[in-house]
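TEACHING EXERCISE
Course module: macromolecular assemblies
Task: Read the component lines below, then compare them to the predicted structure of the full complex.
Student: A.B.
Group: 4
Components provided:
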Amino acid sequence: MAEGEFGGQKGSEVRPQGGQVYNSNLIIALYLKNHYIYNWYILGLFLGRPEKDYHIKEFLMTVSDIKHAGIKAWVEECVKMCEPDNVVVVDGSTAEYDRLMKKCVDAGLATPLKAKENCFLFRSLPSDVARVESRTFISSKKEEDAGPTNHWIDPVELKATMKGLYTGCMHGRTMYVIPFCMGPLGSPIAKYGIELTDSEYVVLNMDIMTRAGEKVWQYVGTDGDWVPCLHSVGKPLNNGETDGGIWPCADVEHKYISQFPEEHLIWSYGSGYGGNALLGKKCFALRIATVIAREEGWLAEHMLILKLTNPKGEVKYVTGAFPSACGKTNLAMLIPTIPGWKVETVGDDIAWMKFGKDGRLYAINPEAGFFGVAPGTSAESNKNALISAEKNTIYTNCALTEDGDVWWEGIGYPAKGKLVDWKGNTRDALPKDKSPKGEEFAHPNARFTAPAKQCPCIASDWESPEGVPISAILFGGRRPSTVPLVHQARSWNHGVFLGSIVGSEITAASTINAAEVGKIRRDPFAILPFCGYNMGDYFQHWIDVGAKADQDKLPKIFYVNWFRKDENNKDLPGGFMWPGYGDNSRVLAWIFDRCDGVDNAVDTPIGLMPKDGALNTDGLADYYKKTLPEILKVDVEGWKKEVKDIRENHYPKFGKHLPKELTAILDDLEARLNKA
Ligand code: O2Y
Ligand code: MN
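Instructor-supplied answer key:
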């Protein structure tokens, strides 16, 4: 085994960021000394890459250069087990990114997009298109600690199985050592990790999604905290075999996405896709981070973070937890329809929140990019996401157009001519931007991986190391009935209750089991697939965090529902009683004022709701003005059924781990409904 992609060769190379840094002026001076450097700089300008400082790097770092004894020993142990042909320590440079992308293009795994600057399209195998919850494990020592909503395997058994799979699994491949940071570098809230992977696709995506590369080493130092993340696609190449342009991965029964919470350890095998393989995201920033957050007294959440500015220029920060397919990215990048209001993005998926010295809760986005779902993203639904992904973006499982662009269902216009679909088949485009189920040109979970800094509405302080102070926390789901447009919790614990009952109604499109249609699929705090421990204990953690805090400084908690339906009202597009998207700014404006204690609410059995006329309806279509009273009132009978469902079907799952505070709030809600 040779260290360094070129057999341990060391040489002089130009790298952006970290180490010995030269600014652009110095680079010009260096031209006199070294034409090679200048040429790289000019090439960078020509390609329109983000401006970076360039410096001369004398040596390629190897495993033996790692100064952190714990990391070095772990890497060496994994090299011994996985037996890669080469080991490369990732430096995070543009040159390295370009080299690895070229490797993928040359191997037939990626296609450069002629229509988009520095953008590439990958196609995965049909067996590897999404996170696989059935193969995701919380491997705590005791099954009870994983809780009733996680898959569990005893860690001794799971490690033995996975060690068997890992042994020799990187034959014919390079192992990449990716040092990465979740959060702004040096932030007191940030955490560090090392991902070992045999997938160039993973390195490229981690480069966009995290702060990765040599700049991380100074923060982990010689003995700093870090999370080990081992990943393999599970497809060794023996006897000179190559991938032959086919996405490497293992069969579903050999995929394991394993979290060992007591050790803060992640082992992933067999999948190269998204949340299964980019281990900084769901595995670290949620499953392991929820465990660390509980140990350390903070909150790791599946939440967007947005910055809201009112017409007076006053600012508040809001987080929001919504289950999949509820428009979290769209809300984070919303373009308000009400004049004078502004929404800017801090994060679209994950929030880490810690109390500051002033007693307020501060949030950082631990990620540096968006791994956004492409289908349904259009100029109407999320123009800012489209602009974010115009350049320097990786597309996965989208369709390819004849002019070298990407296309997907719901992009807002029909494609022309022929399309190569996500399975690689060339087919005639349809005259509309929808396709029959199962015949989509882009996979429904097709993705774009785009740098967050390219988002036109990224907040100037999105990388603030101390985070942004949170005024409001939103919960929501797709609820066609019962749940009103917005209501506010009376207290922190009432807010925890609202978080604990989050869910979306099951539709024919979201299940293969017809008997489930119409029932509520509960996804408490929208974190059910991402909590690294017992969900009952997670509820308790939220209650404990609130109890220790200064009550006046805690964020206010709200439940929103953009998805009320009236199928019989033919005026309403799609039957939806609320327009959603940019018009959600009307609800955000009400929430903003609530946080300032404005007298704009009435007390109801379910919480505080907008007073008559308190919601800005200027410019709202008349048919929505007509439906508004219906979605702003308490459906007492609907809520009584909700209480019954929570009491009989939802809360019993958590047994003795369910906090008594939540049962008390459920009882109180029932009593208030009975009095109404
Ligand atoms: O299927 C995947 O691997 C991606 S899932 C995902 C990606 C970005 C943000 N959120 C999610 C999610 O499942 O919540
Ligand atoms: Mn998510």
